[in-house]
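Reviewers of the previous submission asked for a worked example of the structure-prediction workflow described in the proposal, so we include one complete record here. The input consisted solely of the amino acid sequence. No template or homolog information was supplied to the procedure at any stage.
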Amino acid sequence: MQNETDNPAKAAPKKSKIFLIILIVLVIAGGWFGLTKYLHGLHHEETDNAQIEANISPVIPRVAGYVKEVRVKDNQIVKKGDTLLILDDRDLAVKLQAAKAAEATAQSNLDAAKANTNASRANIATTQAGISTADAQIEVAKINVRRTAQDYDRYANLIKDHSITQQQFEQADAAKQTAERQLQILVQQKNQVARQTSAVSSQSSATSSQIGVADAVIKQKQVDVAEAKLNLSYAVVTAPESGMVSKVNVQEGQFLQPGQSLFSIVLNNDIWVVANFKETQFEKMRIGQRVILHADAFPGHDFEATLTSFSPATGSRFALLPPDNASGNFVKVVQRLPVKIEFVNPADSLVKQLRPGMNVDVDVHL
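From that input alone, the workflow returned the following structure tokens.
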């Protein structure tokens, strides 16, 4: 009986020591964990609000038309300049022919205007020659007028003395009047030729101006032809850059509008990370700091990176409906600032396997 009563008394202190040891170990472990986290927080800033980003180029047709052929599939790798799809170009080809016909018509009008101008210039030369001829004839007529006037004066004196007959005097008078009338006729003819020359000159100026108009029309038609050729080339939609095609939501026979987004190409030239840090974490962060990334797709692998830039504004400023704190009741919300982080070794095989939109954990070494 004595032994049975002694055993519980000895077991109680033993259990108390084990509990105390466990408690001490837990306190030490908890303190160590808290201390390490505190020291880590002094030299690191972390966030899980981060994703992989890349350049994504949308495929957009520049002309309207029906899809004739689709040459790519979902997730296909393409190179810059590869044909993605072909539109029915018959309407565009007809417009090109119409533009070429209009250009030919404009060229014909220009040739006709040049021919009219040359003819007008030839007429000007002819009328100017006629004026020169008229001037020469007028000079001859003036000489004839002077001669007949002198003869008339002599015959007038002679008739007074009855040295000549009346018939001779009348012949001298008629010769004088004929010469004067001939001079008047030549002067009138010259004036008429001068008026014709002026009219022809005006016509030549008009036709010359028509040349300028026709030349301007030709240039416009040439622009129309160039535009039609360019639109015809747009019937073949090519890859703007090398990369991987997204889901192709285009079917043969579908009608497309200019500017309609068809699908996208994820460019394979570069990827980076955009991490959204709280504004309270921003104080000690600087460009060029070392960053360790952990992607959910590759747990346990450390990706070396560098902090390269900060966004000029918080993410809420670029939202479709940015907040307006001046209206309604104000509630303070901690804002997040996008930070761009680039990989140190973008040629790493695991880095190349990352895709835009994947989640990553970011650890910035302050």
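The chain has three domains: 45-55+268-365, 61-88+235-256, 91-233. We consider this example representative of the routine output the project will generate in years two and three.
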